[in-house]
Specification:
two-stranded antiparallel sheet, elongated, about 300 residues
């Protein structure tokens, strides 16, 4: 008697995948199973449940199994799908770029609020990665222009592609550069922003397996995690308008150390801000007589 072939419906394969991911230590097994299946079937998560008894076709099963194997090996979902939502956009991501995080949206939102009424602004993004920060800023500030730099040519290509997709490429120049190395000194920028490598090198081996799949050069902040903040602030007045501002994303426990580096660089209005998890995540700095000083001090805490 011929053995009956297993029919994999949407609900059945989701239940199986959830259990399999859980056994592999995946943090959000059900959610990841759903997101991957949505990508394969081109359905929303709601549609998965309104069509729960729909059987998968053989080609759909094959693609889904490939995704499941990669996720079980702790490859991030964003790398598997090649994209990640950030602000109002969907960004292409590759192994050359960090995966944009929700907490970074707070950095962008604050910068848009600080600059929305200030007319044309020139913005420099140091270590642009996927372009999530600079592309989103230009999307939210229609009068602004920008320059994005990264030492990784692959990241620069991704930033440029995302800028084209979002529709801001005509206002953005993208360069392969080690921080300021190829950045022109004139005209000055009114905003310098960076989400630099900030993880202390001794902490790298203890990171989540998923994070360790991301480019090490975009994570390693040196012995104390502050190397790139020092380098950026040491030469910042070569490119920053004296009436401008600087904004950083920071790592855990780096708020006051980065704030002090800003003060030593000549900024006297410095604010450390927390994310939704009550973790110090951002530092904003300007001079008291700048276009930003007191506005920076009045940024509302989360």
């Amino acid at each position: 008697m011929q053995e009956q072939k297993t029919v994999w419906t949407i609900l059945k394969i989701l239940d199986w995948t959830r259990q399999y991911f859980a056994s592999k230590g995946v943090e959000n097994p059900r959610l990841d199973a759903e997101v991957l299946l949505c990508a394969v079937l081109r359905k929303s998560r709601i549609q998965l449940y309104t069509n729960f008894d729909e059987p998968l076709q053989e080609n759909e099963l094959k693609q889904y199994r490939t995704y499941v194997a990669r996720r079980a090996a702790r490859e991030p979902v964003a790398y598997i799908l090649g994209k990640k939502g950030f602000m109002d956009y969907e960004f292409k991501v590759t192994r050359d770029t960090l995966i944009p995080r929700p907490e970074t949206e707070l950095l962008v939102e604050n910068l848009i609020r600080l600059n929305r009424e200030k007319g044309p602004r020139r913005i420099l993004d140091l270590g642009c990665g996927s372009g999530a920060i600079i592309d989103s800023l230009l999307g939210g500030l229609p009068e602004a222009t920008g320059m994005a730099v990264d030492i990784n040519p692959g990241a620069v290509a991704v930033t440029r592609e995302n800028a084209e997709t979002i529709g801001v490429a005509d206002r953005l120049e993208v360069l392969v550069s080690d921080l300021y190395a190829r950045v022109p000194r004139e005209p000055k920028f009114q905003v310098v922003v960076s989400n630099p490598p900030y993880i202390p090198e001794g902490d790298l081996p203890g990171l989540q397996q998923e994070v360790q799949k991301e480019p090490r050069a975009a994570l390693d902040g040196g012995k104390d995690g502050l190397d790139f903040y020092r380098r950026i602030l040491e030469d910042i007045w070569q490119v920053l308008d004296p009436r401008g501002m600087v904004a950083f994303e920071i790592g855990i426990h780096e708020g006051e150390p980065v704030a002090e580096l800003c003060r030593k660089a000549g900024f006297d209005c410095v604010k450390v801000c927390r994310d939704y998890g009550d973790v110090e995540r951002m530092v904003f700095a300007g001079k008291g007589d700048s276009d930003y000083g007191h506005e920076i001090l009045e940024i509302k805490e989360r």
